[in-house]
Amino acid sequence: MDPGHSLEFPLKRETEGVLLLPSINQENSNLAAFSRTNDEDFLSLDPLMDIKIEPEEFCESNEDDECSYEINSTVNEKHPQACKKEVKQERRNSHNGEKLFRSTVSPCQNFMLTDSELCCVIIAVAASRKKGKKKGSQKGRKWAKQWFIDREKFTHEKLLNELRVIEPNDFRNFVRVNGELFDELLALVAPEIEKRNTIMRDAIPVSQRLSITLQYLATGNSFEDLKFLTAVSPQSIGHIVMETCTALINCLKEYIKVPTTSQEWKQIAQDFYDQWNYPNCLGSINGKHVAIKKPDNSGSLYFNYKKFFSIVMMAVSNANYEFMMVDVGVNGRVSDGGVISYTKFGQALAGNTLGIPEPTQLPNSQKILPFVFLGDDAFGLTENVMKPYPQSALNVKRRIFNYRLSRARRVIENTFGILFSRFGVLQKPIALSPEKARIVALACCYLHNFLRKRHSRAYVTTQLVDCEDLQAGVITKGSWRDVVNEITPLPPNTTSRNATNNAKAVRETYSDFFNNEGQVSWQWKNVGAVGSANN
Questions:
Q1: Engineering a disulfide at 56: which of 72, 102, 138, 205 sits with its beta carbon 3.0 to 4.6 angstroms away?
Q2: Are 317 and 304 spatial neighbours (Cβ–Cβ below 8 Å)?
Q3: Who wins on pLDDT, 157 or 503?
Q4: Which of 1-15, 68-82, 105-119 has the highest mean pLDDT?
């Protein structure tokens, strides 16, 4: 190295940390350490060389101002193998009143500082400076907030335990299930969501994970709001909710299933006829929009005809306000009856692979008609999907058909109403990605069927759903309509206007049946006509 060779590089005064470098002592292959003590006043390279930077006087300016170091390497004439280093530190942009650092260096023996070795020193200082900046930016950060660590003091679990004993109705309102069903759900999902305690901290108990999720589904409160109730961080709540919803779907999968045998389909048809006076009906079909927050970089993909962002929930219900099929996730822009073609159910229906029974004779009639699903104007008319006659061409006969179909199809409207009124998360835009919103909505549907089967009377009261006074011809709207402002339906189908002649013939035959041998005494009063099927 040439005598008098020097290099200058910047360094923050608050630089801290340790960095390992190859030793520049040719007789020592160990690693050398660059370090700075916590008092921020001492810098050393050891065993590279004995360098000390000791402040003679301190700067009065901002401690974050940058300093520059100059390293000079000279050869000792008396000891050619020895090197004397002088380190001078001076402030950049110095001004009046600023004080300087003076550094002293003791000589190192038996080695010479080469250019490559000097570069190692510079790299060490630069890297340590960068590390010091990173540490400075994280100064004061905590691993966890203390009140999250002391979760047991502030958690909602204590309140729930009290409510379960002294106010069971309030407990049910909080998590939408009673204590017995909560324990049943807990036993089902525990194997999938339970976590182990670690030496760092105790895991959030399974019961709290389930109650947090049920509270979120029941209210739709944000994770930020729930943290004050549960003493759990919003990030953890997000993970807990998605994990528990997935577990609920997996554990309750038997509560929503499409019939697979002819006998199962016929039982559903019998229930519709007994309760809603529509023969050969296999289910009521409808779709609703589930509002979501606009997904990032999605443009208008999820923007529906009602001018908000959504995903579509398509469902088929039986006669007892229970879902037989639910499909969630089609973007809101695809918002007419064509949505059904995107579902596995719709594809199976079109491909005739649902196992639907063969056409059968109607009650008290010689007419033989196929089994059908009931939809509204959003769906196309087919041999297995009936829809109302258009309002523009109605007579008494067609109004009777529309009334009978509407009476049975109202089941799916009320099923959606119960679902949306019981689970508040569906009443406001879900602030999650479409994929996560889909999981949340599906979990609500599975819980709906679970509660409908296991706790029917408390979950679905007579006042909650629409009720019809048959003799007076008056329909009393269900109370769910007061809770839910609007459940956005699918718009009328504009792409499948041309039904086949066979489909039209099936609808016409059902219309003849309802106006003759299949009539009920109250139907004329409900359509404003008196006893004539031929008007």
A1: 102
A2: no
A3: 503
A4: 105-119
- Give per-residue pLDDT as tens, 322-344: 999 999 999 988 855 678 888 88
Q: φ and ψ at 477, to 5 degrees?
A: -70, 145
Q: Hunting for tokens 């260096």 — which residue is that?
A: 105
Q: Model confidence at 510, in pLDDT bands (50, 70, 90)?
A: very high
Strands 372-374 and 385-386: parallel
DSSP per position, 237-261 = HHHHHHHHHHHHHHHTGGGS----S
Q: Tell me: the pLDDT tens digits for 254-282? A: 999 999 899 999 999 999 999 999 999 99
Q: Is the Cβ–Cβ distance between 230 and 202 less than 8 Å?
A: no
Of residues 416, 143, 157, 432, the one with CA closest to residue 289: 416
Non-local (6+) Cβ contacts of 62 within 8 A are none
Are the beta carbons of 285 and 415 closer than 8 angstroms? no
Six token digits for residue 94: 């110095």
Domain extents in the chain: 5-137, 146-251, 255-527
pLDDT of residue 138: 53
Judge if the upstream peptide bond of residue 390 is cis by omega within 30 degrees of 0: no
DSSP calls for 297-362: T-TTTTB-TTSSBEEEEEEEE-TTS-EEEEEEEEETTS-SGGGGGGSHHHHHHHTT-S-PPPPEEP
Q: Are 370 and 384 contacting, i.e. CB atoms less than 8 angstroms apart?
A: yes
Which residues touch 353 (CB under 8 Å, ≥6 apart)? none
Phi, psi of 218 (to 5 degrees): -75, -30
> What was the pLDDT predicted at 361?
95
Task: Give me the torsion for CA of 249, 254, 258, 260, rounded to 10°.
Answer: 140
Strands 360-361 and 368-369: antiparallel
| Amino acid of residue 73 | S
CA atoms of 7 and 11, how far apart (whole Å): 13
For residue 173, give both structure tokens: 């309102």
Say if residues 412 and 285 touch (Cβ distance below 8 Å): yes
